[in-house]
């Protein structure tokens, strides 16, 4: 059976600005390269972002980690379980909250952390190649403002369903 498509021009919505597509492509390129690089260290897709934040903030809990990375708690829990199982993270019961665990990097994590930061620095240098110091400062400030603008969207996503909007 052959489907015949209409040749009439169908009005479609146009994109006002492609900046988020560009940021998304940049992110996917970097994550793809990192995922390949870190595979030899038994780090699975995207786990390196969790590992770096745990190394940088030893003792944080799952909720703090989720908020820091702007990911849901389920994603954080799965990533932490895999990192723990691979010997990168150790969990300690939180004395002030028996339901929570504090997350700490292991010596193995700290060794890999140095590599991850070196790779991140190399990617940053490549991305900013040809930029002046002022352009680098401006780009950083503008991207930070974009993230801040989206904070309310993230906070709304975290709000439990049915919670009133006070």
TrEMBL record:
Keyword check for Transcription: yes
This protein's record includes keyword Transcription regulation: yes
Keywords tagged on the record: DNA-binding, Transcription, Transcription regulation
MF (Gene Ontology): DNA binding; DNA-binding transcription factor activity
Residue span, HTH marR-type domain: 16-148
Record-given protein name: DNA-binding MarR family transcriptional regulator
Stored InterPro entries: HTH_MarR-typ (IPR000835), WH-like_DNA-bd_sf (IPR036388), WH_DNA-bd_sf (IPR036390)
PANTHER family membership: MARR FAMILY REGULATORY PROTEIN (PTHR42756:SF2), TRANSCRIPTIONAL REGULATOR, MARR (PTHR42756)
Transmembrane segments: none
